[in-house]
Amino acid sequence: MSFDRPMADRRGIVLGVANDRSIAWGISKALVGAGARLGFTHQGERLERRVRPLVESVEGEFLVDCDVTDDAQVEQLFSTVEEKWGGLDFIVHAVAFAKKEDLEGGFLGTSRDGFLLAHEISSYSLTRICQAASPLLSEGGSVVTLSYLGGERAIPGYNVMGVAKASLESSVRYLAADLGPRGIRVNAISAGPIQTLAARGIGGFSQILDVVSERAPLRRGVTQEEVGNTACFLLSPLASGITGEVIYVDAGYRITGM
Ligand code: NAD
Q1: Alpha-carbon distance 143 to 100, whole Å?
Q2: Is the beta carbon of 138 within 6 A of some atom in ligand 1?
Q3: How far from chain centre, in Å, is Cα 37?
Q4: What residue's CA is closest to ligand 1, atom 15?
């Protein structure tokens, strides 16, 4: 392994690019810089128009439509991986969704539908993807997902998504326990707030950004690039001893914020 290009020749898939502000895109750019070979998914035809030019700009090797709630599409994704590469070294899972009405006001009013939908897309999908990828993942393989502080604290407006992130972080530990004996690692990055499409749906998001800039030890928020670099590290052999962890990329906000 070279410290310069720690991902040289490693093949991986990125789920969750919607546009060039997506955290998944920041991670993709870091991975390409580190020498990785990438395949991508998009969710539905509408997003394909935005995602395809991005994928082409980094010479992505394929782009597959994959709604994580659709088992046939999940299976199609891994058939494509098998056909193209015959194996897989890493996965970036940067997918989440909750209904807009569940990301405003309090948590108390969350509907059954809204609760289940948020959990299916934002938490269960990691397990489903790891399950389907498992036969293809190589020893030394690595999986990274994205979480947020709202999974451990009750952050106003984050509501059902916070509960889903708690479930996601716990899933990371169980998946790490199951896949560890095969030398496969699973970790989460708990990222500070970043202006993205998904973040726009969260009530009071701009206040959250202001509070972080005031109270984080670094007195600023974090960038897509900073999260990208950390994901690249966790996915690379440089992080070979780290699994089942939640790593905070939040300018230190968790230790001083309230
Ligand atoms: P984004 O809107 O760019 O990405 C969210 C992605 O989820 C999109 O690409 C969307 O297509 C995908 N998605 C939603 N439902 C899906 C489904 N059913 N099937 C497949 N894909 C689906 O926003 P982002 O902020 O980059 O979000 C990426 C991840 O980072 C999410 O897990 C989010 O919770 C997490 N995160 C974001 C922040 C932030 O402040 N932006 C902070 C911490 C964690």
Answers
A1: 28
A2: no
A3: 18
A4: 97
Hey, whose CA ends up nearest to atom 22 of ligand 1? 95
In this structure, are residues 203 and 103 in contact, taking their beta carbons and an 8 Å threshold? yes
Cβ-proximal residues to 112 (8 Å cutoff; 6+ apart), any chain: none
Residue to substitute in 19, 25, 43 for testing ligand 1 pocket (most ligand atoms within 8 angstroms of CB): 43
Confidence of residue 258 (pLDDT cuts 50, 70, 90): low
Residue nearest to atom 33 of ligand 1 (CA): 96
pLDDT (tens digit, 9 = 90+) per residue, 31-75? 999 999 999 999 999 999 999 999 999 999 999 999 999 999 999
Residue 153 scores a pLDDT above 70: yes
